[in-house]
Amino acid sequence: MSDDSHIVLPDPKPSTEPGLSRRAFLRGVGATTAAAAAVTTAIPELNAEAVSTVKGIRQAVIQTEINGKTYRLAIKSHWTLLDVLRRELNLTGTKKTCDRASCGACTVLLDGKPVYACSLLALDADKRKITTIEGLSDGETLHPIQEAFIREDALQCGFCTPGMIMSSKTLLDQNPRPNVAEVKEALAGNICRCAAYHKIVKAVTLVKA
């Protein structure tokens, strides 16, 4: 074969096989897309009144003691305790963070025991005693646990702090002198996304009663 040899490709011939041409195929795709868009935009908007009426939801009245005060509250059966504390009573120290019982930021005390307020229905708080972070201080005088967290700089963003303090209170009420392992176990259900665990544990072990 000489150096100036080259391969000659045959001229393309129109296909004689049955099927769509490229142009016809693209035209069909365009038509299908347009039709799909038309169908999508044609979906009627949902009736707001129908959406707001959910079968099974009912009104209820509960009476509960929160931070030493008795409240008689009109609620809906699907409201959580966290909803009521923050929205109805403006007790916003209890934080709404994950809202799925995973982080512990919404921890409050129910009859002295720590619970996640985001996963407890307000109905279940009827005739119960609740303590939130606002209930620990006496006016401007902070609770010793709150003082310890400030003194040891045991916080960064602060979102986990109320829950950490409430869980710590339960521990210290039962065991005023916990060791590091006991503190870690008591706070296992509380997550600090800023990773201030070392200072948090230190603060709890150094609380001055």
Topology:
Layout: H1 22-41, H2 48-52, E1 59-66, E2 69-76, H3 81-88, E3 107-110, E4 113-116, E5 129-131, H4 144-151, H5 161-174, H6 180-186, H7 197-205
Parallel strand pairs: 1-5
Antiparallel strand pairs: 1-2, 3-4, 3-5
Describe the protein's architecture and organization.
The chain has 209 residues and is of the alpha+beta class. It has a five-stranded mixed sheet, covered by helices on one side. Residues 1-12 and 33-46 have low confidence and may be disordered. The chain has one domain (58-205): Beta-grasp domain (Ubiquitin-like (UB roll), Roll), CATH 3.10.20. The protein starts with 21 loop residues before the first helix and ends with a helix. It contains seven helices and five strands; from the N terminus they run H-H-E-E-H-E-E-E-H-H-H-H. The chain has helices at 22-41, 48-52, 81-88, 144-151, 161-174, 180-186, 197-205, and strands spanning 59-66, 69-76, 107-110, 113-116, 129-131. Helix 4 (144-151) packs across helix 7 (197-205).
CATH architecture: Roll
Give the terminus-to-terminus CA distance: 100 Å
The percent of residues in helical segments reads 25-40%
Order of helices and strands: HHEEHEEEHHHH
Order of the strands making up the biggest sheet: 2-1-5-3-4
Taking all Cα atoms into account, the compactness measure Rg is 32 Å
